[in-house]
Write a structure and sequence with these properties.
- The complex is a heterodimer of chains A (321) and B (346).
- Chain A is α/β, with parallel strands linked by helices and 321 residues long.
- Chain A folds into 3 domains: 7-105, Translation factors (Elongation Factor Tu (Ef-tu), domain 3, Beta Barrel), CATH 2.40.30; 115-224, Nucleotide-binding domain of ferredoxin-NADP reductase (FNR) module (Rossmann fold), CATH 3.40.50.80; 234-319, Beta-grasp domain (Ubiquitin-like (UB roll)).
- Chain A has helices at residues 84-91, 126-136, 157-163, 181-186, 200-212, 253-259, 296-301; strands spanning 7-17, 22-29, 42-50, 53-60, 71-76, 97-101, 104-105, 115-121, 142-148, 168-172, 192-198, 220-224, 234-238, 243-247, 278-288, 304-305, 311-319.
- In chain A, β13 (234-238) and β14 (243-247) form a beta hairpin.
- The longest helix of chain A is centred in the middle third of the chain and has 13 residues, at 200-212.
- Chain B has one domain (20-85, 153-331).
- Chain B contains 13 helices and 10 strands.
- Chain B has helices spanning 20-24, 63-76, 88-105, 144-149, 181-184, 189-192, 204-212, 241-244, 256-259, 289-292, 296-307, 311-316, 323-331, and strands at residues 42-43, 81-83, 110-115, 118-123, 128-133, 155-162, 165-172, 221-230, 260-272, 277-288.
- Chain B is globular and about 60 Å long.
């Protein structure tokens, strides 16, 4: 019993350079019908057929949930990554046919909130843009704090500030600005929910302060942007399928399993949702866990792995897949 | 396809009947000659034409009468329909799901015309023709969950998804097997399932919550659940126990065939995309024992399931008082022949 979101056939309607590092990609459905509804914070998984290598990368939807005529994502170019963002920046042009998944939301607004307090770091701004669209139709107030290296690199900051005066606060490190986290977290009205999306360091810092200052864990929501890290190639035995495969350096274990024609479930492809959890039958080497799903105790036992982000070094990894 | 809607009651004189075709399409819940809990969830894909699985929301010959019975329950007890304030978006989500699905699957019964947010809904069996603005509650005669719940067979639970859990934060519940929305509202998945015996220890609910919180939009799932009910009464609620509890005393070997009903719930699970909530429609089907035993495979299997039921389940399903009598009555309809796999008649 596992789930994978269904596929949607889309056409690239527009590619827009937002900053020197960020491009926005807009998709319309190829058959002209409205795209499926979604909620703010949802992501889609975009198929990136780069030669022989099929990558599937998750990106947050940033368009308005009330506009189903097109979806938009924004992608920051990461030249040190596995190549998915580079492929999007260099190869994807208007008119191209692409396949994306139906939206899945692992970072939903808690609609009971009396107020939504949002903290974004860099490209982590994208899910908040869709959530702000959703809240603009009525609902609890929001307050967004957006951290970036510099104003020119802060995608959509000017636009957000102009449309939501008083609710959007920029924080650019090149101007010497820093977030006064303790003041922010100790002056919120009762019933506020806190949302954080951005680099790992930001998420860890904010959640640690929130916990230390007495925020209930259920009022703190995070979206990890865990991209699968590249690494060394390794050998895997898929015991249930009776197949031996090699995971290439720029490929994730999940992608290598899919390339071998073995059906494997997934939803987030970022180590957060738990859908791809796979039992380890034998491990002649070391597991490198990069997920946010397994507990420390489970990692210690070493009897399971999240193949969307985690890797292995050693002689052979045998999986129940 | 034409459906002849029956005029019948689910209380007082109990004129409810299944037509011969209604008997054959009954969702018999046992795929083998025994029963134990399992996470028996499968994709809610369109099933065989004419079966209750053909469409996402089955409309059958009892539709109009069931909606009339629901109106009676709501008039006596408005708390059978509740939505906590944060479930407004999910309520609209569900209204959209039901209207688009039914208009597509039953175009001769239901029509939906949309022009942006301006919607026009026609429900011919119930004589409803309304224009409203999607998302604006003041343009409907009543709140969206109540509006669509009064037009859709089965109970409807809207489950908010938070903290890797599901929360019973809205619902329309008038055809329930002895549970109360008013009692359960605001509870999470483990809390409202707390009274169920054995299944917690088996880890059933831990596995189920992991699956349910991952259901993607457009890929609903389903399972069947069952119990027994004396008389074809839809509203077997805790609130009304004094009205239906004493019915159990009327069961005798001579009245079992007429009074005892197999009550099956077709439970489906759908992601609601605008709110990220889940909707859990629980559709109740009733089949009197006299009708059940006209299908030889079901007669044999029903006897073997009831005979071998674990004592905890005999108690939980409320049949302690008449269990031996039931087994004896059913034994007379079981010739001992083998049964074929699966739930459908031979």
């Amino acid at each position: 019993m596992s789930s994978t979101a269904r596929a949607l056939a889309v056409t690239v309607a527009d590619v827009i350079e937002v900053t020197p590092l960020v491009k926005r990609f807009e998709f319309v459905s190829t058959d002209g019908a409205p795209l499926p509804p979604f909620s703010g914070g949802a992501h889609v998984v975009v198929e990136l057929p780069d030669g022989d290598h099929l990558r599937r990368n998750p990106y947050s939807l940033m368009s308005s949930p009330r506009d189903l005529s097109r979806y938009a994502i924004s992608v920051r170019r990461d030249d040190g990554g596995r190549g998915g963002s580079r492929y999007l920046h260099e190869q994807v042009v208007p008119g191209m046919a692409m396949t994306i998944s139906a939206p899945v939301n692992l970072f939903a607004l808690d609609l009971r909130a009396r107020k939504h307090l949002m903290i974004a770091g860099g490209i982590g701004i994208t899910p908040f843009i869709a959530q702000i669209h959703q809240l603009s139709g009525g609902g609890a107030p929001f307050e967004l704090h957006y951290k970036a290296r510099s104003a020119p690199l802060a995608a959509y900051m000017d636009d957000l500030a102009a449309r939501h005066p008083g609710a959007v606060h920029a924080c650019c490190s090149d101007r010497g600005e820093d977030l006064d986290l303790d003041t922010l977290l100790t002056t919120q009205p009762l019933g506020t929910h806190l949302y954080v999306c951005g680099p790992e360091r930001l998420i860890a810092g904010v959640t640690a302060r929130a916990a230390a200052l007495g925020w209930p864990a259920r009022h703190v929501h995070v979206e990890h942007f865990a991209a699968p890290p590249p690494g060394l190639p390794f050998a895997v035995r898929l015991a249930a399928s009776n197949l031996s495969i090699t995971v290439r350096g720029e490929q994730s274990l999940l992608e290598a399993i899919e390339e071998a024609g073995v059906d494997a479930p997934y939803l987030c492809r970022g180590g957060a949702c738990g859908q791809c959890e796979t039992a380890v039958v034998a491990c002649d080497g070391t597991l490198h866990h990069h997920d946010h799903w397994l507990t420390d105790a489970q990692r210690e036992t070493g009897d399971r792995i999240m193949p969307c982000v985690s890797r292995f070094t050693g002689r052979l990894l045998t999986l129940d897949r | 396809m034409t459906i002849t809607f029956r005029t019948e009651t689910f209380r007082d004189d109990f004129t409810f009947r299944n037509s011969p075709a209604g008997i054959r399409r009954f969702p018999f819940p046992f795929h083998e000659d025994g029963y134990m809990y399992s996470v028996n969830i499968e994709p809610h894909r369109p099933g065989a034409p004419g079966s209750v699985f053909e469409h996402g929301f089955d409309v059958d010959e009892h539709y109009v009468a069931e909606m009339a019975d629901r109106a009676l329950v709501l008039a006596e007890d408005p708390l059978r329909c509740q939505a906590l304030p944060h479930m407004d978006l999910a309520s609209w989500d569900y209204l959209e799901l039901v209207m688009t699905t039914k208009a597509r699957d039953y175009p001769e019964l239901f029509t939906l015309e949309t022009d942006g947010d301006r919607w026009h809904w026609t429900n011919r069996p119930l004589g409803i023709d309304d224009r409203f603005t999607f998302g604006v509650t003041s343009t409907l005669p009543c709140p969206p969950l109540e509006y669509i719940g009064r037009q859709t067979q089965g109970d409807h639970c809207l489950l908010d998804q938070r903290d890797n859990n599901l929360w019973m934060d809205a619902g329309m519940v008038t055809t329930q097997a002895d549970w109360s929305l008013d009692f359960d509202i605001g509870m999470n998945f483990f809390e409202w399932h707390a009274p169920v015996p054995l299944a917690h220890e088996m880890g059933v609910f831990q596995r189920a919550i992991k699956f349910l919180t991952s259901i993607p939009q457009g890929q609903p799932s389903r399972r069947l659940n069952w119990t027994l009910t004396v008389n074809p009464r839809l509203d077997t609620s805790p609130e009304n126990y004094p009205k239906w509890g004493p019915d159990k005393l009327t069961v005798t070997p001579d009245t079992i065939g007429e009074k005892m009903h197999l009550r099956v719930e077709l439970q489906t699970f759908w992601r609601l995309p605008r709110s990220n909530a889940l909707v859990f429609p629980i559709r109740c089907y009733l089949l009197r024992f006299d009708d059940l035993v006209t299908i030889p495979k079901w007669a044999r299997r029903m006897h073997r399931v009831i005979r071998d039921l674990p004592p905890e389940l005999v108690t939980y399903k409320g049949m302690s008082r008449y269990h031996p009598m039931l087994v004896e009555w059913l034994a007379a309809h079981d010739d001992g022949a083998p049964t074929s796999p699966g739930i459908f008649p031979d």
